[in-house]
Amino acid sequence: MTYYLYYWPGIQGRGEFVRLTLEAGGADYVDVGREQGAAAVADAMDACRPPFAPPFLQADKQLIGQTANILHFLGPRLKLSPTSEQGRHWALQLELTIADLVVEAHDVHHPISPELFYEEQQDEARRTAQVFVRERLPKFLGYFERVLNGNGGGALWMIGRSLSHVDLSLFQVLTGLEYAFPSAMQGLAERHPDLMALRDRVAGLDRIAAYLDAPRRIPFNEDGIFRHYPELDFGNH
Q: Which residue segments constitute the domains of the chain, with CATH numbers given?
């Protein structure tokens, strides 16, 4: 099957979570926005059951929206999710928690509204960044490391003994946070070595390593979810 991923060109955004799963699963897919432009993404949203926003995935006649929902769909098909129903719902629960973290990371630089420029809400962003870096981020990372350690002594992956889409999503979050908050993440990495080891294992997977080195991989930038504004990185403040 050829999958069609619809997401805006030029940024990783939430589309990157889907790309990583497609890449790790060796799927044949078309990144429509990058190949055909933003207009093709907008046109595809005119459907009888339209998605609210990208990313969304076309698989045969299905059009599936929402990042966690897309990964819940792809996981069994690409052998990147638990085989039991209970395990798949646990993976979905973790993906939804990751989505909560992604929203909070984005709202650091756009705490009032995504419709306003960063410069129009910079004072509010500084206040939000302090709370995020000092309170919310440690809480999220502590939770995910607790889940990893609860999967058994010396667990390599978040669920069971196999790689899942949850591991890939955590890799994306951790690398994004390191880009956006390098100073803060330096200290947090020392407190969460098992999560950092998970990040390194994912990066070392053959298919992921090849993707990270490929020109089709969009680099982090200041138009995406994870943006590096030095004045918001309170690790050494």
A: 2-77 (3.40.30.10), 85-232 (1.20.1050.10)
